[in-house]
UniProtKB/TrEMBL annotation:
Pfam families: DUF150_C (PF17384), RimP_N (PF02576). This is Ribosome maturation factor RimP. Residues 16-94 form the Ribosome maturation factor RimP N-terminal domain. InterPro entries: Ribosome_maturation_RimP (IPR003728), RimP_C (IPR028998), RimP_N (IPR028989), RimP_N_sf (IPR035956). Residues 97-157 form the Ribosome maturation factor RimP C-terminal domain. GO terms for cellular component: cytosol. The lineage of its organism: Bacteria, Bacillati, Actinomycetota, Actinomycetes, Pseudonocardiales. Its main location: cytoplasm. Keywords: Cytoplasm, Ribosome biogenesis. The keyword Amino-acid biosynthesis does not apply. It comes from Actinocrispum wychmicini. Belongs to the RimP family.
Length: 176
């Protein structure tokens, strides 16, 4: 049954991705699960890269993209094979940083990073397609994404030290 649900996700992903993109967002995750007699279609969407750091999706936007996804799912009812429940969400603060755009959006934030060799906390600087610059303690380090096993944003309850922001080329305007 799990394989069948994976096949459903794979079959629906292109049309759901297109509907999400047409609404101006990016598909983060699509998961189809069996829930009794219905399929539960879980979709996580995020703002598009062009939205920039700190951009988030609001409730009205979730409603708009939900309608767009429901429209394409209704058109592809033959793939789902019956009734479904749709859940559309946006990623939370505990989302792992898995793509370069996740790192760019979290510039100047504190992150906890685990590699094969170590676990450390650093502040995010510039990121490109291959890696990210992190301020770890008082040292700037270039960390290739290929070496990152897991990374998440650390919640801070106070403003970051101005000297850290300055080392990464950012000012107070770049923070929450």
């Amino acid at each position: 049954m799990a394989n069948q649900q994976g096949d459903l996700s794979a079959a629906l992903e292109p049309v759901v991705r297109d509907a999400v993109a047409a609404a101006g967002f990016e598909l983060e995750q699509l998961d189809v699960q069996r829930a009794g007699r219905r399929n539960l279609v879980k979709v996580a969407v995020d703002t598009a890269d062009a939205a920039g750091a700190g951009a988030s999706i609001g409730l009205d936007e979730v409603a708009d993209v939900s309608r767009a996804i429901a429209g394409v799912l209704d058109e592809h009812d033959h793939v789902l094979g019956g009734p479904y429940t749709l859940e559309v969400t946006s990623p939370g603060t505990d989302r792992p940083l898995t793509k370069p755009r996740h790192w760019r959006r979290n510039r100047l934030r504190l992150v906890k990073v685990r590699t094969a060799e170590e676990t450390f906390t650093g502040r995010v600087g510039a990121a490109d397609e291959q890696g990210v610059q992190l301020l770890v303690g008082d040292q700037l380090r270039q960390v290739p994404f290929a070496e990152v096993a897991h990374a998440v944003v650390e919640i801070e309850f106070k403003q970051p030290p101005p000297e850290e922001l300055a080392r990464l080329g950012g000012g107070q305007e770049g923070t929450r």
